Amino acid sequence: MKTRVGIEAIGVAVPRRYVDIEDLARARGVAPAKYTQGLGAREMAIAEPGEDTVALAAEAARRALDAANLDRANLGLLVVGTETGVDHSKPVASYVHGLLGLPRTMRVYDTQHACYGGTAGLMTALEWIGSGAAAGRSALVVCSDVARYGVATAGEPTQGAGSIAMVISQHPAILELDLGITGTSSTHVHDFWRPIGQREAQVDGHYSVECYLAALGSAYREWKTRAIARELVRGGGLASEALARICYHVPFCKMARKAHLHVRRCDLEDAGVPWDVAAEETRAAQRFEDQVQPSLPLCSRIGNVYTGSLYFGLAGLLDAQAAELAGKRIGLFSYGSGCTSEFFSGVVGAHAAERIAAARIADVLAVRERISIAEYERIMALSPASPLGEPPPAGGFRFAGVTDHRRQYVTG
Ligand code: HMG
User: Fold this and answer.
1) What is the rounded CA–CA span in Å between residue 101 and residue 36?
2) DSSP type of residue 200
3) Quick one: CA dihedral 157, 159, 163, 169, positive or negative?
4) Does residue 344 line the site of ligand 1, with CB under 6 A?
5) d(C-alpha 145, C-alpha 53), whole Å
6) 252 Cα–ligand 1 center, Å
7) φ and ψ of 221, to 5 deg
8) Fewer CB within 10 Å, N- or C-terminus of the chain?
9) What is the pLDDT of residues 11-69, one digit of tens each?
10) In the chain, pLDDT over 90 holds for what percent of residues?
11) Residue 115 is a catalytic residue
């Protein structure tokens, strides 16, 4: 019998503070519409040094495990996907393992490839369970990042921070993944990178958009070939129409619109229909509203979470529409600059609405505080070793400083 495998439970964590993107635009002398309509942004999460990648990951992971109501002794794998780790050697996963008191008998490590790192962890977990090697055990995959481009740069309005954790098991109550039916695309490009010792990313912004779209076209077409061969979707080219929704990696929300138009272009070309961009942009608007827009509101309130952005899109989509999507297939596209990428798919679970409700996403966002641009700039200038010393929320975690070269964390 085929092994069912996928996402059983989700937990999220975001920094306590955010800025309103229109405040940022005004402070930079930019028309607010450029950020709201041109990039599709609304709010941007701001992490203070105490809310580092570890603290956010541990909080999201604890919430996911609570939501799954899982016997922790049944966990066999913990992977943290991140590109903003806190040590050259000791992985974020090791801190999370210790902070949550997880079992000794587990594999525990980080995966890194820019924003694809979380998907690398997810694919490992799926294949570990699907192969039978897990022997009935479950995996915890966490995507955690603090995205920084720096004050007054073109990338500034596309920063963000947060963490999303997923319990992966043979009980995929939220999303059963189509194991082995994926398309991948990788090329060696310098679209976005962060040299050792630098806190802010280097980016060739417009080129990075081109790299993303080229990777998407190639990965999507490979997924389509496999999905048609396995009769998950019909042949004839227009495979994207068979997907109830598509979640894309969302560095900024407008990117998902560009991505969806590109997928449509691939489909039409494959079906032998000439590409008429002006006509298709108009036709694509409604398709975009139905198939993609519902995955964006949560992303627009947090900003880019690098490894987590695709999965925040998925969580936001299911939080809003899980009941109507039960039993339907959705597509997902993960892109990591540098670059590697993967298009894959899965079917929403019958009880996904109840399971995603356990993530209490609205409650997590509701306790945030809007800060001024002056306060945001003050936080950005803090040394990464200087946490504000605020107590963590109940059940949360904070980096508290370094003692004898060892990072210390406190829990609330
Ligand atoms: P920019 O050059 O400041 O912006 O940077 P622009 O001039 O290209 O304008 C952006 C959009 O706003 C344009 O729309 C304008 O027309 C529009 P588009 O042509 O793209 O449809 N616009 C307006 N709209 C309404 N009213 C107005 C107005 N003015 C202009 N008044 C850029 C934009 C995205 C390049 C920059 O923010 C950046 O460098 N961001 C970071 C890089 C990035 O996010 N890349 C995405 C692909 S790579 C990726 O996703 C991987 C990544 O997540 C990292 C990883 O893998 O780890 C980044």
Assistant:
1) 42
2) S
3) positive
4) no
5) 5
6) 8
7) -65, -35
8) N
9) 999 999 999 999 999 999 999 999 999 999 999 999 999 999 999 999 999 999 999 98
10) 92
11) yes
